[in-house]
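Supplementary Methods. Inverse-folding protocol.

Structures were first reduced to a discrete structure-token string of length 216. This string, shown here, constituted the complete conditioning input.
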């Protein structure tokens, strides 16, 4: 999947960055950031060979000072860091690497090396992106889109469809098929976001209400 799905903005010629490896005995600090949540996952060091390998494979590869060799993040756990973009600072002596993490990168299963939660933010970010797409359908009404058809039918039809999906979820909840239950829950969530969008509201508004209730 690396090199096809996740490398969507990777610089085609990293050498054009002209990284300066002279200041830290041939090493450059590399800050690893989740491209979706902007959360800093970890910080490592790269030499010229590690940077070349990162470019070649699309997977973040460090130079391990303790092992004295190249070290591909995830080589043991399988939680690779798929490169999305590589940026250099003004002095060309440090890098920001935006990635799609395949799993936790910290010890003991932590999402980050700083023991921060990153998965919850990724879930919210996906829901926000989905809301953006639904809002775009509401504004542009592209032909052939199921969402467009819902908006054209108006609030009564949208509300009715949401109610139908809720009933289907209740029915599946009484059975023991988790896959069907999750699929109905996904349908309900989608139609909820369509309903919110029609009323010029967003999923973030719902999250804010839930957060306020939690803090009471």
């Amino acid at each position: 999947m690396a090199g096809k799905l996740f490398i969507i903005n990777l610089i085609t010629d990293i050498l054009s960055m002209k990284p300066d490896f002279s200041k830290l005995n041939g090493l450059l600090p590399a800050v690893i950031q989740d491209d979706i949540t902007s959360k800093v996952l970890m910080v490592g060091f790269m030499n010229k060979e590690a940077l070349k390998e990162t470019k070649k494979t699309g997977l973040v590869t460090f130079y391990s000072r303790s092992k004295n060799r190249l070290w591909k993040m995830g080589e043991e756990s399988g939680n690779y860091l798929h490169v999305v973009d590589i940026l250099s600072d003004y002095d060309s002596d440090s890098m920001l690497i935006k990635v799609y993490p395949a799993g936790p990168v910290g010890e003991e299963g932590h999402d980050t090396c700083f023991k921060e939660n990153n998965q919850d933010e990724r879930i919210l970010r996906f829901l926000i992106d989905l809301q953006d797409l639904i809002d775009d359908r509401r504004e542009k009404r592209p032909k052939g889109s199921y969402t467009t058809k819902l908006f054209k039918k108006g609030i009564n039809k949208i509300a009715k469809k949401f109610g139908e999906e809720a009933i289907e979820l209740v029915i599946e909840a009484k059975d023991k098929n988790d896959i069907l239950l999750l699929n109905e829950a996904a349908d309900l969530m989608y139609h909820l976001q369509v309903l919110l969008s029609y009323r010029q509201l967003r999923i973030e508004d719902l999250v804010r209400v839930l957060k306020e209730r939690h803090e009471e």
